[in-house]
């Protein structure tokens, strides 16, 4: 079946694009102004509001910057990232300037509604004069229906039904069945039972199913930092304005602007913004990482489609992916993944890099400062490489990102966050000499290993994570050798990976305010492929040892009169045909 390619709206001709955008906007505006839900379905107006906020600005901005003819899923990811960035910048501007013209509550329903319509109109006018002559033939999408496609469509739906059965009937069997079925997904990849064309949809489906399976349990918020962040959003909604000088609120546009705007435009309680909309945003992170992974080339280790998929499963199946409600850290990871995509695909649109960098800064201070230090390290080390390829990780970008980060947290948050970070930095530098000594940091790896428990599940849990860390360590050693021999082509990503691992290594002894589970979840963004590399390396070498043993057995049998020669030869033949598959496909998830 052939349908219009909605993933590539920016590649439609001007007439079709204008008609589509204005149709959605007019339908939503009519529903809003008349206060009559379309077709008596209140959910439809909420969906239209979600579409307008999540997709429309991003696709218009892509046309303004003339970004065309790239992969459809990458286009979708960039459009959503740009939309979220636009909403935060737009809301921040409205919040700062509307009070000067007499609007005392700019973050309220009607001021936001009219301001959003005007801003979209301005974007459409700019795009029309910049990109009205563009014409492309890539505006159709061919869909091939298959059992696997329906299977992945049903996973998120089954997840939602499973949480409903828990909430209303206290019956969790559907949830357990769902988790078991999802756990079989890597085996389907290893056995080549799924078409590569379905890989992106498979990632999105499984991510949504896992996240909704956790987040939709209960109708209330749960987790840790989310309560403080939700308080900030509710405060803004109640007062209709965000005062950056108020130190009782989180100084992040994610909660002072983005979540209140979604709550007002979609007519949703802010709790459901955190439980439904934010998990959708975070489910895009593994999808973005898949497109980063499959382009990596570390010399001796070229990531292909299957390895990229298995690496994504390492990221998704780690419990840090779903143990908390998606908050500042998780949305910041999405923007970090989008920055990595820009480095891989090299769209030559530096303005997109600036936009996503700003969005990362205003989403999470921890990842922002960590990325600043990582960029400084990469910039310093890149100077020692001969004939290094030009990339986005230039000293200029490092300086720009550093200025963005420090400026925001010094001036907007009255320096509170900056002061905390400098204290952590001082504590880190002054405590380097004691880093390997015993300490009372209860969230470090050494503390976790010291926990005493007679439960078999805890023992299995520790063994799984120790095995994961061992494979990552082997992968890092291989990556270091590849860098030393100047074999890696993804050089700057390789350097980022090394600094990510160094940061993780420190957490084994001291966490400096962030638990090991959070740091591991962040660093797996780049360390996941190395775990597969480490596993492949170990299995390959075990295969070599086994091959030598069989060869010696064949030689001895041949010397002893060929009595067992035939059986050993058959064993060797079967082994040699099997060893090519065992390298990375039998992953112990």
From TrEMBL:
Taxonomy, superkingdom: Archaea
Q: Which Pfam families match?
A: DUF2206
| TM region positions | 17-37, 43-62, 74-98, 110-129, 141-161, 173-191, 198-217, 248-265, 272-293, 305-322, 329-345, 351-378, 390-411, 456-481, 493-513, 519-538
The answer to whether keyword Transmembrane applies is: yes
User: What are the protein's UniProt keywords?
Assistant: Membrane, Transmembrane, Transmembrane helix
InterPro entries from the entry? DUF2206_membrane
> Keyword Transmembrane helix: yes or no?
yes
The protein's name in its UniProt record: Transmembrane protein
UniProt organism field: Methanosarcina mazei (Methanosarcina frisia)
Lineage of the organism: Archaea, Methanobacteriati, Methanobacteriota, Stenosarchaea group, Methanomicrobia
């Amino acid at each position: 079946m052939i349908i219009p390619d909605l993933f590539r709206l920016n590649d439609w001709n001007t007439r079709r694009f204008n008609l589509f955008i204005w149709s959605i906007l007019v339908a939503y505006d009519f529903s809003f102004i008349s206060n009559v839900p379309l077709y008596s379905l209140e959910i439809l107006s909420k969906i239209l509001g979600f579409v307008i906020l999540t997709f429309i600005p991003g696709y218009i901005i892509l046309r303004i910057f003339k970004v065309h003819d790239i992969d459809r899923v990458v286009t979708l990811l960039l459009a959503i990232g740009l939309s979220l960035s636009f909403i935060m910048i737009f809301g921040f501007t409205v919040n700062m300037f509307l009070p000067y013209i007499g609007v005392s509550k700019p973050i309220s329903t009607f001021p936001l509604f009219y301001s959003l319509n005007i801003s979209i109109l301005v974007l459409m006018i700019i795009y029309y004069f910049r990109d009205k002559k563009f014409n492309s033939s890539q505006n159709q999408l061919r869909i091939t229906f298959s059992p696997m496609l329906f299977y992945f469509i049903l996973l998120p739906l089954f997840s939602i039904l499973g949480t409903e059965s828990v909430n209303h009937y206290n019956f969790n069997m559907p949830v357990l069945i769902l988790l078991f079925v999802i756990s079989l997904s890597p085996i389907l990849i290893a056995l080549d039972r799924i078409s590569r064309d379905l890989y992106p949809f498979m990632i999105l489906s499984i991510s949504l199913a896992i996240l909704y399976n956790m987040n939709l349990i209960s109708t209330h918020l749960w987790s840790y930092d989310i309560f403080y962040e939700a308080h900030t959003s509710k405060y803004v909604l109640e007062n209709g304005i965000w005062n950056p000088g108020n130190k009782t609120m989180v100084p992040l546009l994610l909660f002072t602007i983005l979540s209140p705007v979604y709550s007002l435009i979609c007519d949703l309680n802010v709790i459901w913004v955190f439980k439904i909309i934010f998990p959708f945003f975070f489910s895009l992170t593994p999808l973005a990482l898949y497109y980063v992974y499959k382009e990596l080339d570390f010399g001796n280790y070229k990531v292909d489609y299957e390895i990229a998929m298995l690496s994504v499963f390492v990221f998704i199946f780690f419990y840090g992916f779903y143990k908390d409600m998606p908050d500042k850290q998780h949305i910041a990871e999405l923007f970090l993944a989008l920055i990595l995509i820009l480095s891989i695909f090299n769209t030559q649109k530096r303005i997109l890099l600036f936009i996503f960098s700003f969005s990362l800064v205003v989403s999470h201070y921890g990842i922002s400062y960590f990325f600043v230090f990582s960029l400084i390290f990469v910039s310093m080390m890149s100077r020692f490489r001969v004939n290094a390829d030009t990339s986005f990780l230039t000293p200029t970008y490092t300086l720009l990102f550093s200025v963005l980060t420090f400026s925001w947290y010094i001036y907007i948050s009255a320096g509170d966050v900056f002061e905390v970070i400098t204290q952590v930095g001082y504590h880190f530098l002054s405590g380097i000499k004691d880093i390997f000594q015993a300490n009372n940091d209860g969230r470090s790896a050494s503390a976790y290993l010291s926990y005493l428990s007679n439960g078999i599940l805890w023992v299995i849990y520790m063994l799984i994570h120790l095995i994961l860390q061992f494979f990552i360590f082997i992968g890092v050693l291989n990556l270091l050798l590849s860098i030393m021999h100047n074999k890696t082509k993804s050089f700057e990503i390789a350097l980022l990976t090394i600094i990510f691992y160094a940061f993780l290594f420190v957490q084994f002894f001291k966490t400096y305010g962030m638990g090991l589970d959070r740091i591991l979840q962040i660093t797996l963004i780049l360390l996941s492929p190395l775990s597969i590399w480490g596993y492949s390396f170990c299995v390959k070498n075990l295969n070599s040892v086994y091959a030598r043993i069989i060869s010696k057995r064949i030689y001895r049998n041949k010397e002893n009169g060929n009595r067992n020669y035939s059986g050993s030869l058959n064993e060797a033949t079967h082994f040699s045909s099997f060893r090519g598959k065992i390298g990375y496909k039998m992953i112990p998830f």
